[in-house]
């Protein structure tokens, strides 16, 4: 009742400067010099948040969000929930339409590490969750931390063993852990200038959402922890990701088509390091992926660079990968990936799946230093078609001690297969252009790298090579 009375009296308030220690629970920032009014703002401290990192602040945070939502409904403009510089321990909090979490650069939201901190429904296991909301976001320069290291059951330099809540029956397997931030069925999302740290599972998850901008976001997950993906774009359209720094153990940016298509994804000006794939389409790939642009991306010491992993009968087409600098290396084979700078594959996941198709891909202005070659593999039921590789500088050398000579089809398909390393390994392709490509090989004879192109004419048709150079070099 108190919050309602506060909202009804808002029109009598005036506010000339924003302060985190304001005695008013609800402040309107107004300026007569701008045609659009500034957003409303509410501090979680004024709703009783302790901010000591020990006591749970879930209730006051949710009260602040609810009051902000009521103010949005009344005043028809966005409302910011302010987190002053402190640490706020919380169970799941639910973001609502028109509300933006504004986390000060010295503030941290800490996700709880107990099962009871999350809803009963496993699909809603997030520290921050927005469902069927519009005009929502997160900003302010601060941090949301999932305390993922508390979910490590046993630390391992190869791959950490993680706690799983599968005993609940809510989900099965070792991936039964909470995600960090989720937007489900939302539209008009803006996530900017925030640090998303140590997720226990996936970090930033878009599900059936539309019109999302992710800008100036830093994502960090423990490098040895599996399944801590950076950004998963699932069944979501019209997404822009720009100026992001992603350093994590598992896939960094991962579009998935589970219940619907994924259209119009743009990723630019990003830096990525991962023990799995930097960019990975799939492996959930039941529907269409189309109209993607990846430009000006730096990939460092990743297990796989640019990857299309179609396993469930979907189709991927009309994509450009441009101005990309990548280095890929071997890690322990328990991680999917064999140091491929580019990996384009389609094959049935299992006997119940069907092969999808991949077509109209352009790779242009690519520089790669890698321990393995480019792998392009269609399948009998789904060929790759109209692939173009233009202006590429490829350097192949070894600097780790993990074994080579393996082709990785995982997940499903043929798993790991013994095969000699090649600069381009190709199978089941109809239409490929390789133009202005320089390929350099380490001259270390112990590596037995002497095969620039590996393909069988029976499965690769309509291949064009123009200005293709391959040579060894002195390390």
SS-based structural class? Answer: mainly beta
| Mean residue pLDDT | 90
Oligomeric status of the shown chains?
Answer: single chain
From the spread of the alpha carbons, the general shape counts as elongated
How far apart, in Å, are the first and last alpha carbons? 74 Å
Strand content: over 45%
Question: Residue share in helices?
Answer: under 10%
Uncertain segments are 1-35
Give me the Rg, rounded. 24 Å
Number of helices: 2
Number of strands: 36
How would a crystallographer describe the biggest sheet? 20 strands, mixed
3D architecture notes:
The protein is mainly beta. Helices cover 5% and strands 49% of the residues. It is built from two helices and 36 strands. The protein has a 20-stranded mixed beta sheet that branches. A six-stranded parallel beta sheet has the order 6-9-14-16-18-21. Strand 31 (406-408) and strand 32 form a beta hairpin. Residues 1-35 have low confidence and may be disordered. It comes from Anisodus tanguticus. Keywords: Glycosidase, Hydrolase, Signal.
């Amino acid at each position: 009742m108190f919050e309602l009375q506060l909202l009804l009296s808002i029109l009598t308030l005036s506010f000339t400067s924003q302060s985190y220690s304001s005695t008013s629970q609800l402040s309107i920032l107004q300026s007569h010099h701008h045609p659009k009014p500034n957003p409303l703002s509410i501090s979680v401290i004024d709703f009783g948040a302790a901010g000591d990192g020990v006591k749970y602040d879930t209730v006051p945070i949710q009260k602040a969000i609810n009051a902000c939502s009521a103010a949005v409904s009344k005043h028809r403009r966005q409302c910011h929930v302010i987190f002053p510089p402190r640490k706020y321990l919380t169970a799941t909090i639910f973001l609502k339409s028109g509300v933006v979490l504004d986390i000060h650069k010295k503030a941290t939201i800490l996700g709880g590490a107990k099962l009871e901190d999350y809803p009963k429904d496993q699909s809603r296991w997030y520290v921050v969750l927005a469902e069927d909301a519009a005009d929502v976001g997160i900003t302010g320069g601060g941090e949301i931390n999932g305390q993922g290291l508390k979910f490590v059951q046993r630390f391992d330099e190869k791959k950490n063993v993680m706690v799983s809540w599968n005993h609940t029956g809510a989900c099965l397997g070792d991936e039964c852990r909470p995600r960090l931030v989720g937007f489900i069925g939302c539209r008009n999302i803006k996530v900017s200038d925030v640090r998303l740290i140590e997720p226990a599972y996936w970090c930033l998850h878009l599900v059936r959402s539309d019109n999302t901008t992710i800008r100036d976001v830093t994502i960090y997950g423990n490098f040895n922890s599996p399944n801590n993906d950076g950004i998963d774009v699932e069944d979501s359209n019209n997404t822009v990701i720009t100026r992001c720094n992603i350093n994590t153990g598992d896939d960094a940016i991962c579009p998935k088509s589970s219940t619907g298509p994924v259209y119009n994804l743009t990723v630019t000006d990003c830096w990525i390091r991962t023990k799995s794939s930097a960019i990975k389409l799939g492996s959930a790939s039941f529907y269409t992926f189309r109209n993607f642009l990846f430009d000006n991306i730096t990939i460092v010491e990743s297990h796989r660079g640019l990857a299309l992993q179609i396993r469930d009968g979907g189709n991927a087409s009309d994509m450009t990968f441009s101005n990309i600098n990548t280095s890929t290396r071997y890690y322990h084979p328990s991680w999917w990936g064999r140091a491929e700078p580019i990996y384009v594959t389609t094959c049935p996941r299992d006997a119940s799946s069907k092969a999808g198709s991949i077509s109209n891909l352009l790779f242009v202005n690519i520089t790669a230093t890698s321990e393995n070659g480019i792998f392009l593999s269609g399948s009998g039921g789904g060929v790759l078609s109209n692939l173009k590789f233009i202006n590429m500088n490829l350097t192949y050398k070894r600097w780790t001690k993990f074994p080579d000579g393996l082709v990785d089809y995982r997940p499903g398909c043929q798993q790991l297969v013994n095969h000699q390393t090649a600069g381009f390994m190709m199978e089941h392709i109809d239409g490929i252009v390789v133009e202005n490509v320089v390929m350099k090989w380490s001259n270390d004879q112990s590596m037995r790298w002497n095969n620039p192109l590996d393909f069988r004419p029976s499965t690769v048709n309509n291949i064009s090579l123009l200005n293709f150079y391959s040579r060894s070099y002195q390390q």
